[in-house]
Amino acid sequence: MPTFMGLETAMSNDASDRMPRMPTYLVTGAAGFIGANYVHFLAEQEPDSLVIAVDYLGFASNLPNLDGAGERVVFEKADIADFPAMLELYKKHRPDYVVNFAAESHNDRAILDPSGFVRSNATGAQVMLECSRRVNVSSHVHVSTIEVYGELPPGQEWFDEASPLNAKTPYSAAKAAGDQLVRAYMHTYPEMNIRMTHCANNYGPYQLPEKLIPLMITNVLRGRKVPVYGDGLQMRDWLHVQDHCRDSRCAARRASAAVPGRSDRRVVVARLRHQRSARSDEHGHRSPGARRAE
Ligand SMILES: NC(=O)c1ccc[n+]([C@@H]2O[C@H](COP(=O)([O-])OP(=O)(O)OC[C@H]3O[C@@H](n4cnc5c(N)ncnc54)[C@H](O)[C@@H]3O)[C@@H](O)[C@H]2O)c1
Question: Which of 173, 223, 248, 268 lies 20 to 30 Å (CA to CA) from residue 6?
Fold first, then answer.
């Protein structure tokens, strides 16, 4: 059953009954860190759009993250790896734009139990693509992570879309599997409008306290020691979550042409829609990459 964040009438009928029809976003992982920020961002930037916020309310989620998002946000509890449930949601809401943030994302938890990560990050990615194909959405954005590329070798400044996948953890391996499925859909169904992004570490509101920056801050405030990863010499790139949200919207809405990589924002946003005949499926926009992400 949907949870109403507001505007009950928007949910009382199928999407086809809405007159005039509002541009509709389907945002997954919406009760997590970046997804929640994205829902708020859309609500502010596009007050005339409808946002279907989907999450299965797993460990990393916090539904109150969506409080105050406004009357055009509708929450649906669903598992993106559950094909019948997701297809039903798609048919009900007929989204124009799909942005798939849903993933199991906590590296330490993946070491304890990798199987849930494969389900959300790989199977879930494929289920979302298949639903977007069947319902013929305007664009489908798959949110991946720079962590699929592993660590930068010495002397290399950044990753780009041609960098080889080199996942090192169950989390990033499952995300890399999702990437491969996304690329397979790009090639197999060139009529689909699929974009994929690879972003460095995000920081900002709604992040769980166990993540690096909130953990550092809360430890300092409590007079505790701050943890150091490895020998302390690792470097990471960081991106404010608002910048990620802005570029994810850009990736969803741009009608054609590649979204330029923005080195100052440290995010790779690549429009990766391809012809069957194309040899390479990357556009080569560059951005500094993370030495270690998330
Ligand atoms: N946090 C970062 O620094 C960062 C950087 C680059 C990319 N990313 C990517 O951005 C996305 C969002 O990351 P985040 O930090 O917000 O993660 P998060 O763990 O805070 O939130 C993920 C949300 O997805 C939901 N979810 C997981 N599996 C699901 C499923 N099968 N069905 C429905 N909902 C499901 C969870 O319940 C959670 O609310 C992920 O795909 C991640 O790989 C994150």
Answer: 248
Please state the atom number of ligand 1 nearest to the C-alpha of residue 102: 24
- Residues touching ligand 1 (Cβ under 6 Å) are 28-29, 31-35, 55-58, 60-61, 79-81, 101-105, 120, 124, 143, 145, 175, 199, 201-202, 294
| Residue whose CB lies within 8 A of the most ligand 1 atoms, among 101, 140, 206, 247, for a mutation test | 101
Residues 6+ apart with CB under 8 A from 183: 196, 272, 281
Threshold 0.90, pTM exceeds: no
Paired tokens of 70: 């406004």
Q: Looking at ligand 1, which residue's alpha carbon is closest to its atom 5?
A: 201
Which amino acid residue places its CA nearest to atom 12 of ligand 1?
A: 101
Name all domains of the chain by residue range, CATH numbers in brackets. Answer: 2-204+238-271 (3.40.50.720)
Residue of minimum CA distance from atom 44 in ligand 1 = 145
Q: Rounded to the nearest whole angstrom, what is the distance from the C-alpha of residue 114 to the centroid of ligand 1?
A: 15
